[in-house]
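From the shared-data thread, chain only:
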Amino acid sequence: MPAYTIDDFARMIDHTNLKTDASAADMRKLCDEAKQYHFKMVAINQVQSQICAAQLAGTDIDTGAAISFPLGQTSIASKVFDTEDAIKNGANEIDYVVNQTEVKNGNWDYVQDEMTQLVAACHAHQVPCKVIFENCYLTTAETKQLAEIAKVVRPDFIKTSTGFGTGGATVADVTLMKSVVGDTVKVKAAGGIRNSDDFLAMIKAGADRIGCSAGIKIIDALKARMTVDHVTQIDIDRPYPKVDQ
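Structure, as tokens:
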């Protein structure tokens, strides 16, 4: 595996504030932090798309809107409308939550149709689409089947979690998802990733993007590791002792 610079790591982070009481000031702070650390994206609720897109105008940092978040329990038509509305208001990445009811019903045709329509709505505007599985509620077989569908439909990413469920990202889930999709779809790990040890473990398992609200803490910890080791890159294949919590 390659060695990563601090900026390489920062560009894997979706800097997140999905709190229901997030204010405009909170969004400005989130965007300022993203610019300071050069994160890849700010992950925000759909309604915050316009303010964040304006704050990030002229940068290479994306505005990522969460659709049907966090439950995924809205119709396909509603998800498509919200996706197009978010893009109209400046979002240039979309993370949507699958319909768990239809997953549990084993209605895979519905799930594939939903994914197909959401991916098409995004790609019509050259916007990346991420599909949130919420693995904490799924069996291994269900996670695998969702990944198999994604391998056919080709969203840009499949994502472990919303961070609002009963559990977040696990190395086992990332490994499973990556084993199914291979190089055809990327994997985003999100939920409960709060330190650099977990961050590195998710990347080593196959995650290409990390969604978290602890990005600043993680990057600062990685900088500290590099300072101690007198290096400018981290080889994630090298065994590192756990250093932060």
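The beta strands are 3-4, 13-17, 41-45, 62-67, 93-97, 129-132, 157-159, 186-190, 209-212, 234-235.
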